[in-house]
Amino acid sequence: MQLVGVMVRKLNDGVEYGEFRRGWLPDEALPDDPRTRVITAVGLEDAREIITIALIEGDHEPADVEAWAERLAPIEERRYERIKHLVGPPTLNAVYRVIAEDDLSRPIAE
User: Fold this and answer.
1) pTM of the predicted structure, to 2 decimals
2) Residues ≥6 apart with Cβ < 8 Å to 70
3) N or C: which end of the chain has fewer CB within 10 A?
4) Tens digits of per-residue pLDDT, 25-62?
5) What's the superkingdom here (predicted)?
């Protein structure tokens, strides 16, 4: 099954996205990290609001998430330490199971 990780948070007053991004970038990459593509977007109504969507490649089970989190924990802790003064706590931080993927520019059959 395909999974996605989603996190929503808000930059603190006076913090620019570029400053946040420099701290957010991982200082180490693991070749078997399943988060092979991460999309980050800022809100149109509030540019301080950031949403991050990690596309988790491959066929995985929800039980795999705990093992990944444990293996990635040291990297994620260092990232958190670098950004904790730049951003508020997540208002959403969850992993979801993908149940549909549609191209709305084409007719969709039921």
Assistant:
1) 0.86
2) none
3) C
4) 988 888 878 887 899 999 999 999 999 999 987 777 87
5) Bacteria
The domain 3-97 is placed in CATH, from the list 3.90.870.10, 3.30.70.100, 3.40.50.10470, 3.40.190.10, at: 3.30.70.100
Read off φ and ψ for residue 95, nearest 5 degrees.
Answer: -110, 135
What tokens appear for 77 in the block? 């802790």
Residue-by-residue DSSP string for the chain: --EEEEEEEEBPTT--HHHHHHHHS-S---TT-SEEEEEEEE-SS-TTEEEEEEEE-S---TTHHHHHHHHHHHHHHHHHHHHTTTB---SEEEEEE------TTS----
